[in-house]
Design goal:
nine-stranded mixed sheet; 6 helices; 9 strands
Amino acid sequence: MESFGERLTKLMRSVGLTDANTALLLNVSKQRLENLLTGYSEADMDVIVRVAEVFNVSCEYAAMLSDVPQVRESGNSKEIIVAEKISPYDGVIMQKDVVGTVFIDRDKMHGKDYFGFIMPDDSMVKARILKNDMLIVRKQHFATNGDIVVAVVDDGDAIVRTYNRTGNVVVLTCEGDSMKYKPIKIDTVETKFNILGKVDEVRISF
């Protein structure tokens, strides 16, 4: 089975790009590119998206989910990555956690970056977000009270909750079974807390 590094090497050769030029176009160091080509390190979402853009292939192809390089849709839609997991340490989506792609309207994006995230549990059912629904998430590290966010607390798994903040205290509230899912109260001075994005849309899983 072809590796990411082998596929990237093939793409580079197909257009005659050198390692130096490829590193520049992908916005990575020469060492990072070498690590990607040899399999020493894994591609993340940003690299996957840049490979798709630079070589004019689909994100699915760049993420090793398809052997068909052509983008399935075009026009005014943009392909974004959908993940089932997000790194708890830095909020990065790695290639192994990408489960597919989806298309969203460019006009609704307003130049912002988005990703898709599979809802991991039933903590937000009262907000009409069910387990395995696809969330279209705007990448940002801030939120307004009442926003539904994807966040990480103390290097735990990414969670989806309603955000409220007063001073240094953040409360992440579930919209599900209150016995099973308790509000999470965070002192942002003492506790590591990272907002990965705001949920803009929910696509129901059938």
